[in-house]
Specification:
Blueprint: H1 3-25, H2 43-56, H3 67-83, H4 97-112, H5 127-135, H6 144-166
Helix pairs in contact: 1-3, 2-4, 3-4
């Protein structure tokens, strides 16, 4: 299990425990207690639980997660199901339309609040840096490794220059 999968599963089970605590200690209906292990939940019940989870999940500080993180949590849970022999597709299966729609609506709501994670962007390599690579014989055509490094960098330059011309 990857760290993201373990984190997402832990978040879901902790959320489930908190929900059950609130239901049982706030004169709630015991029939509303969220029962069962994540992997054992039937599809309809899983949809219901996931929709509530998507809407209610927050950081420990009480802040909302950014849209991308929320999406990654659902993807990690989907991967957890796949890894355990239950191929569930939250995003392209009729059975899970409610989960997909709930996530989509929640992400729109968070986007309006500005809860979007800033994208990291690589900076282009300077001519000085490129010259340094040539001077240190990293970029050369003598060995297979050097040849590969040289072609990889030249491909990167071509793609970068095409992108610059488009903008």
């Amino acid at each position: 299990m990857t760290k993201k999968m373990a984190w997402a599963v832990h978040m879901f089970t902790e959320w489930q425990k908190i929900c059950n605590f609130k239901i049982l200690n706030c004169n709630g209906n015991p029939a509303e207690v969220l029962t069962g292990q994540l992997l054992d939940m039937m599809n309809e019940y899983l949809c219901k639980c996931f929709c509530h989870f998507i809407i209610e999940i927050k950081k420990l500080s009480g802040e909302d997660y950014p849209c991308e993180t929320l999406y990654e949590i659902v993807l990690a849970l989907q991967a957890h199901f796949h890894k355990n022999g239950r191929p569930i597709h939250f995003f392209n299966s009729e059975k899970f339309n409610s989960v997909h729609n709930c996530l989509d609506n929640r992400m729109r709501e968070l986007s309006k609040k500005g809860m979007i994670r800033a994208k990291e962007q690589a900076q282009p390599i300077s001519l000085k840096d490129e010259q340094y690579l040539w001077d240190k014989n990293i970029l050369r055509l003598k060995t297979p490794e050097q040849l590969l490094n040289t072609f990889a960098l030249s491909d990167w330059f071509v793609l970068w220059s095409i992108r610059c011309r488009r903008t």
